[in-house]
Amino acid sequence: MKVFKFGGISINSVERISNLGKILQFWQEEKILLVVSAMGKTTNALEKVVEAFVDNRQDDALQLFDKIKKQHITTAKYVLVTHYLPCEKKLKDFFTEVEWLLHDEPQRDYDYYYDQIVCIGELLSTTIISAYLNEIGLSNTWLDVRDIIRTNDDFRNAAVDWSFTTEKINEVVKPSFEKTNFVLTQGFIGATDENESTTLGREGSDFTAALFANVLDATDVTFWKDVESVMNADPKQFETVTPINTLNYKELIEMSFYGAQVIHPKTIKPLQNKNIPLYVKCFIDPDLAGTIINNQPLHQLPPIIVLKEKQVLLKVTTKDFSFVGDHEVGQLYGMMEELHLKPNLTQIGAIDFTCVLDDWPEKIEKIAGKAASFLDVALSRNLSLLTIRHYTEDIIDELTKGKQILLRQQTTDTVQMLLQ
Ligand code: ASP
Ligand code: MG
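^ thats the input. predicted complex w/ magnesium ion below
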């Protein structure tokens, strides 16, 4: 059994949906669990609905939601003929679920409503995709993942109850494969034991796919993306990038630790634990090699570059020239943890402690303010943090040319530099 995950971009137009159909036609003899995200920018659009609703702007919320409804109905009309009516009925049932809620006044907090409303994106997209696959002769079983993935009620960042979920996958998902080769469900969402919808964090569909792969003991997982493969740097930031055809989980964990946004970090463990290879393939051209990620040791990798912009340097110095100690540093770490800020680089000296953080202005001001009561504090903003794994002197020179290096930390395989 395989797991395929299709992200929002892979189904954001009629052409792309038909392209997905073509990819799956090629695989129709295989048993595949399909995990699908919301179409295009639907999740962002639903977030706007939530904001309006919680802000008591009910009319705005309904109007914004109306747009989303129309988009889905239009797409369904374009891609479906004989399967249109039953699909429309199902879409309308989901619309009603949200509208019923929007007609009330908000009683609970933002995160709760977020999950009740935003989860619809995946339910709508999978309803259309399932009908479309049936329309082109690819029979499939559509499952509401909220009946399978049980989570706690930490809305917007819900944690999965693995033992309940495993039981449900065995009970519901496995038997579905006796009826159809394709079983189709939603990424990103789940439900509590009280049937409240939950979400697993933005871009959480990757994690859903990994979870299913783990429990189903899948032979492999494929993430269908709009890129040729995993690259050694973000093509939006660098002109020349090199494809990486083979990677391993350890390197991938390192890359995401330093801030590369290749694959959702939560995704890696469920796959690595069961030694399940992950393919990253291009849905625009499935013949391209893509990337395979597994547990094999790697010998040769190109320099891997991660550039984080909008960094702030926080430097604290003891007021009386005494050594900076565990106590002060501990207090700073405590404040960062409270604000969910993770330092991207730290350095400790005799009388000072330096750390580099993402610039969330309000949070930074808070820390700086509090720290100023017992330390001298200096902030510098608008910096960038460059990390190069498997570096060479040439690449360091090339990427730092004309820039001032404010801080540099280096191990045998990774160099980090704070640049101005
Ligand atoms: N639709 C959700 C998002 O945009 C989940 C996902 O795409 O993985 O964040
Ligand atoms: Mg997405």
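Residues 7-8, 37, 203 surround magnesium ion (ligand 2) (CB under 6 Å).
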